[in-house]
Amino acid sequence: MIAEDGVLLREGLVGLLERFGYAVTAAVGDAPALLSTVDADPPDLVLTDVRMPPGNADDGLRDAVQLCGRHPKLPLLVLSQYVEQTYATELLDSGDAGTGYLLKNRIADVADFVDAVGRVLAGGTVVDPQVVRQRLRRRRDSIDRLSPREREVLALMAEGRFNAAIAKTLYVTDAAVSKHIRSIFTKLDLPPADTDHRRVLAVLAWLRR
Asked: Sign of torsion, CA 90 72 43 109?
């Protein structure tokens, strides 16, 4: 299924995918139609634009995130003219199926685009290099917001130290260490999640800085 408000691009995508053997079951031009069509008859894959009516903002991407919750096994490939970092991150961290986020200029390389569609359909993840660069830059910027003491705590976490050992090394209480770690998680945008180990993710962010 395709969701794209630009008529020429929508029809072009339909023709391109059909030329490579895909059956396009629906092609809609607004976000409400995207949700209702998928809910009525979930396709094998959804290809959606970010900016669509009625809001002409990030309606398509927000609906894609909703679809991850409603249909966690549904592969989703989002196309955009720009990187919408917040929802892009939420989309890539959601669902159990194939997921992709590509900038529209990637469509110009037909072989790469069709390969991306196939990989997402098969359960893989396809991320535009520009999205990757912005995500890493954002995490590095977050490291820069840490206080000197928080950097010391995170560095010791990266050495594999438990809270008690960190407290002993820095001559502070266990409670103080826990407070610093909570602040680190907040500044690195690492909310509680059942599927992620925040301590490990924080350490990875430190190592990649």
From this structure: positive
